[in-house]
Design brief:
Jelly Rolls, four-stranded mixed beta sheet, 194 residues, 41% strand, 17 strands, elongated, mainly beta
């Protein structure tokens, strides 16, 4: 690595790779003209203690998780997640944790999509297309939908061309509501045996 210091202005220019192994501090405005790369499975901490963190976790879903108080300004558009309901609710029927909007395709009203493990405060909205589908929770989780254990034998039926909203109100506890394509509320969604 080659470097030189401008004695007049106190600037340091580095050509090549700089590796910092100890703690350091940067004061003033820093501009990254070539971008910055954050390695897989890295957490950036802000403030002290647990004020806030941003974590990039390469766990197959390549998600970025933000902890602490968060604000999202108006005008943010989230890309819909495309789920295809399956006979057992697995593979393409699994809705990943952190998903906010899902577009569901189903070949049959008996096919299933599966909600992720519930984290209190998570809200998932989903549009169900030309065929209806069933909604379950992860197998053997003991998680409920509208007060009914829905991790294998029970599931909630969602009609075609409707939108459902699943809100996790406590760990493994989902509240499921739905409206028709005309915005009419679908009442009393009670999961039952397949």
């Amino acid at each position: 690595m080659a470097w030189r210091e401008d004695a007049v202005f106190g600037n340091v220019e580095i050509e090549g790779t700089l590796t910092q192994t100890g703690a350091g501090a940067v004061t003033g405005l820093s501009t990254l003209t070539g971008g910055a790369a954050i390695p897989d499975d890295t957490t950036l901490a802000f403030g002290t203690g647990t004020d806030g963190t941003i974590e990039y976790d390469e766990d197959g879903t390549d998600q970025i998780r933000v902890a602490g108080a968060n604000w999202v300004m108006p005008g943010v558009q989230f890309t819909p997640y495309a789920a295809t309901a399956t006979a057992d609710g697995l593979t393409t029927g699994l809705i990943p944790l952190g998903t906010s909007f899902v577009s569901v395709t189903s070949a049959s009203a008996d096919n299933i999509v599966t909600l992720p493990a519930g984290t209190a405060g998570q809200v998932i909205k989903a549009w169900v297309g030309a065929n209806g589908c069933e909604v379950r929770t992860p197998a053997s989780s003991g998680a409920t939908i509208n007060g009914v254990d829905s991790d294998g034998t029970n599931e909630a039926a969602i009609p075609a061309t409707s939108m459902f909203t699943a809100t996790c109100v406590a760990t493994d506890t989902w509240l499921l509501e739905a409206v028709t394509e005309l915005g009419a509320v679908i009442t009393a969604i009670v999961p039952d045996a397949a």
